[in-house]
Amino acid sequence: MANETKLTIPSNAETTEPSADGTNFSNRAQWLRAAVLGANDGLVSTASLMMGIGAAKDDAKAMVISGFAGMVAGACSMAIGEFVSVYSQLDIEMAQLKRDQRVPQEGLPNPVRAAMASAAAFSLGAAFPLLSAGFIKSHRVRMAVVAAAASLALTMFGWMGRRLAGHRW
């Protein structure tokens, strides 16, 4: 099998060079990806669910209860999906290290950390439309505030993701 391709895991020095101030942003990649996806999904799916309920019924309680149920279900789903995905990645990397008879030279994926980051971020994202709708009696104003809060939070999450990844404006 002369054409067999070997997967190699680069050493720490090759992939995780710290920035000028000593911060190593590569170490954030696992949990940051899970957190950004979780927050955006929590925000968009919960706001969309609440807007759909609000379009069918002008009851604030129904909107908030459905949003809360969506938040709990979505956070659980995101955590389980992220855990399984990252655990699969970990299995692949560990098997390759064993085949190469090497020890890990850099941080391996952590399925529990990724799952927790994803669930927490989903809940944080879902909190924006939930809190924006929970205190407004007027149906029209409540719908507009949920849409505005979701748009503002998406912008804020994008900015935070860039900052945590080490991008400067």
From TrEMBL:
InterPro entries in the record: Ccc1_fam
Key words of the record: Ion transport, Iron, Iron transport, Membrane, Transmembrane, Transmembrane helix, Transport, Vacuole
GO molecular function: iron ion sequestering activity; iron ion transmembrane transporter activity; manganese ion transmembrane transporter activity
Residues annotated as signal peptide: none
Membrane topology, from the record: Multi-pass membrane protein
One GO BP: intracellular manganese ion homeostasis
Cellular component GO terms, alphabetical: vacuolar membrane
Keyword Ubl conjugation: no
Chief subcellular location: membrane
TM annotation in the entry: 60-80, 114-136, 143-161
Claim: Transcription regulation is one of the keywords in the record: no
Family recorded in the similarity comment: Belongs to the CCC1 family.
Protein purpose: Vacuolar Fe(2+) uptake transporter.
PANTHER family the record matches: FE(2+)/MN(2+) TRANSPORTER PCL1
UniProt-recorded name of the protein: Vacuolar iron transporter
Taxon lineage: Eukaryota, Viridiplantae, Streptophyta, Embryophyta, Tracheophyta
